[in-house]
Amino acid sequence: MQDLTEGVARFRSDVFPAKAELFAHLATHHTPHTLFIGCSDARVVPELITGAEPGDLFVVRTAGNLVPAHAPGADGVAASIEYAVAALGVKDIVVCGHSACGAMTALAEGHDLSGAPAVADWLRLASASVARTAADGDVPALVRQNVLAQLTNLATHPSVAKALAEGTVALHGWVYDIPTGRVEDLTAAAA
Ligand SMILES: [Zn+2]
């Protein structure tokens, strides 16, 4: 915790003054251009890998960067998506998977998740992606398949469906490779 406390102090003394004008603007403006949906994995830092500034990205991070398809009932992921698209008017939505994803590894390799029932329930959302990935244990293939499946799920959310129909939002599927820092755009060819 001391690291964080020192980090906060450094932010106040060094980082904040250097961007004082930006923070003054952000105090009264919230106009992110992109909804970034990534994995909760500590190694995948959206602002760092995209060079984004505070205020640029509206970020949702979930285990395995999973986006549940639209369904009735309260859902924090759905609420954040709707707010980003319908209220904030983001122009792009990125779903970003990554190498060595713990969630995808557990699914691809069939790990026993009986000791983590909430994780097991959540990862069941990726069952179709597992089924579509030909080889058992092929984590990179499942990571890619999973990203594409979340783009499909995104389109089931009414706010996203409306923005897609009106041509005001574009969906992108990325995979971030931790050892090389490379980002592969799975949707580049189709865009
Ligand atoms: Zn992950």
UniProtKB/TrEMBL annotation:
InterPro entries: Beta_CA_cladeB, Carbonic_anhydrase, Carbonic_anhydrase_CS, Carbonic_anhydrase_sf
Catalyzed reaction equations: hydrogencarbonate + H(+) = CO2 + H2O
CDD domains, alphabetized: beta_CA_cladeB
EC supergroup of this enzyme: lyase
Entry keyword annotation includes Lyase: yes
EC code(s) of this entry: 4.2.1.1
Pfam families: Pro_CA
Entry keyword set: Lyase, Zinc
Transmembrane intervals: none
Similarity comment: Belongs to the beta-class carbonic anhydrase family.
Physiological role: Catalyzes the reversible hydration of carbon dioxide to form bicarbonate.
Protein name as it appears in the record: Carbonic anhydrase
Gene that encodes it: cynT
